Amino acid sequence: MSLQEDLQRRRQQKRILLMTHLVLGYPSLAVNREVIGQMAASGVDCIELQIPFSEPIADGPVILKANQHSLDSGITVEQCFQFAREMAAAFPGVHFLFMTYYNIMFKYGEDAFLARTESIGLRGTIIADLPPEEGKTYLSTSKRLGLSAIQFFTPTSSDDRMRTVAGCGDGFIYCVARRGVTGRQTMFDDTLDQYLDRCRQATDLPLAVGFGITSQQDILLLTGKADMAVIGTATIQLVDSRGVAAVGPFITALLG
């Protein structure tokens, strides 16, 4: 079953799906392992595994700091692949995707990176700085391998641009909730509602909304307007401030 088909099946059973995010190696792979276990047990549908990069231009200060910490600690792309394989095998009910920036994939070798991603059981990739016009071989190779190459809508995307991007996507569309980088609070107002209406009209793919989603109230406000909410910075801050044990109850409360 394709990622899109399974997410649509799950949506028939849940009011809204949840995708979480973590930076591999922050604060350590051992902590990542514990956090993923709590996320999986709490009913998360998808998890973004971010391969650290030195210039994560879409990410705000919290995730930027986590990337730099991981790099300073010596995390390697090889370690990320090995860890991702372990997680995909351990938690088959979760869809794992690599999130990173194109330089990582380019340096590894585009074909080799995608082939290995598929071979270890991940469902797709989120390459934050690769527009479809510059990623034609990435898109075609992903399609051939059965990987979902996740594409982005933003509030500044025209209707025509949305349709073009959606035609290149697979799995789901990542709808960036506001301008700027990750981490800042998103305002839930008529402007966001109008944007999500445009997103829905542009594609039949499931819509995942991220950037600044932090609370159960945010999730409730997205219910009926999006198929999946994305939580990133909030979980990293939670682990920093309260420890791994707080993750499970936090996720359960979000979905409650």
UniProtKB/TrEMBL annotation:
Please write the reaction equations for the catalytic activity of this protein: (1S,2R)-1-C-(indol-3-yl)glycerol 3-phosphate + L-serine = D-glyceraldehyde 3-phosphate + L-tryptophan + H2O
Active-site residues per Swiss-Prot or TrEMBL entry: 48 (proton acceptor), 59 (proton acceptor)
Quote the EC number.
Answer: 4.2.1.20
Tell me the domain of life: Bacteria
Check the record and name the Pfam families matching this protein: Trp_syntA
Q: Which PROSITE patterns match?
A: TRP_SYNTHASE_ALPHA (PS00167)
Gene Ontology MF term list: tryptophan synthase activity
A single cellular component GO annotation? cytosol
Give the pathway listed in the UniProt entry for this protein.
Answer: Amino-acid biosynthesis; L-tryptophan biosynthesis; L-tryptophan from chorismate: step 5/5
EC class: lyase
Q: Sorted alphabetically, which keywords does the UniProt record give? A: Amino-acid biosynthesis, Aromatic amino acid biosynthesis, Lyase, Tryptophan biosynthesis
Q: Which family does it belong to?
A: Belongs to the TrpA family.
| Oligomer status and interactors | Tetramer of two alpha and two beta chains.
Q: What does this protein do?
A: The alpha subunit is responsible for the aldol cleavage of indoleglycerol phosphate to indole and glyceraldehyde 3-phosphate.
Protein name per its UniProtKB record: Tryptophan synthase alpha chain
